[in-house]
Amino acid sequence: MEINNASHIIHDYFQKLSKHITRIKKRYDEEDIHAFRINVKKLSAFLSMLQSGVTSKKDLLKLPHRIKKIYSLIGKIRDRQLCIEKIKEYNTANLKLFQNPIAELKKEIKQIEGKRKSFLKRKELSEIEHEITHVIPRKAGNRLIQTFLAEKLSTILAVIAKEQYADEELHIIRKNMKGMLYIKYLYKNANKIPLPFSFWDQNQWKKVEDISNILGMFIDRGVALNLLETTAGNKPDAWEKELKALWFKWLKEKKDLKKEALGQLGTLLPLQLSKIHGYQTIE
């Protein structure tokens, strides 16, 4: 069993990207921003997997810089939208206490929105798609899929082996887990059956998804804390009481999410690297 018609899958991703970017150009709707970013991540994971299936022009199977640029710009807008939402959730009764950071966040959103001219047009996305589909393998066989999963798991285990869990390390763990999950679901959707080979059973895969979601919230809290610091000015010690209380609340949530994620990692891992390399490829 394999993933057939890789070009069709890529075409589907580009159709979705084109649809959402067209809508975003008109209005920065949160759902379209989220959908665009998710499909960019899925496309990136699929291209990363296909790289090991070609012998030349591997650079064409990397996510193009022009798409990365849009992804980054839209991500900055989304980060600020989420930060405003979290502030409002914290104190809906008296938003005047937070009017300065909210006003600054809205100002930054407007500034980023002014860069919409750099967004790719439908024709440009079509050209990028053509460049990619010209070099990809027609099928993603089991060997290719299994190699991709093994590489992602090896990266996760390498980070864990260092026992240093700063924000960047946890971001790497989550990014690789999400890549594995995207391919797992893509395989299931293409073949209507679960992966016939895996490092984890279904319960463990569910735990991987849970850890990924917890780490996603952890990363969001970190971004919100940074935005609050830059928009409020000075340092938390110099802030008003309510603003300082919000900062400490988010900081505690971030620490709690990190503790929860590491606790769940401890029940899922460690896995021995020999288990990865000892897998027999199914063809």
Write the layout of secondary structure elements.
Elements: H1 6-26, H2 30-51, H3 65-90, H4 99-113, H5 122-133, H6 142-162, H7 167-191, H8 202-232, H9 241-268, H10 273-277
Helix pairs in contact: 1-2, 1-5, 2-3, 2-7, 3-4, 3-8, 4-8, 6-7, 7-8, 8-9
Task: Describe the structure in your own words.
The structure is a single chain. This protein has 283 residues and is mainly alpha-helical. Helix content is 73%, strand content 0%. The chain is built from ten helices and no strands. It has helices spanning 6-26, 30-51, 65-90, 99-113, 122-133, 142-162, 167-191, 202-232, 241-268, 273-277.
Major sheet characteristics: none
Rounded mean pLDDT is 83
Topology pattern, helix = H, strand = E:
HHHHHHHHHH
N-to-C CA distance: 8 Å
Estimate the helix proportion, in percent: over 70%
What's the alpha carbon Rg, rounded to whole Å? 21 Å
What fraction of residues sit in β-strands?
under 5%
Global outline? globular
Structural class: mainly alpha
Instruction: Give unreliable regions as ranges.
Output: 271-283
Number of strands: 0
Query: What's the tally of helices?
Result: 10
Descriptors:
globular, 73% helix, 10 helices, mainly alpha, 283 residues
Question: What is the gist of this entry?
Answer:
This protein has helices at residues 6-26, 30-51, 65-90, 99-113, 122-133, 142-162, 167-191, 202-232, 241-268, 273-277.
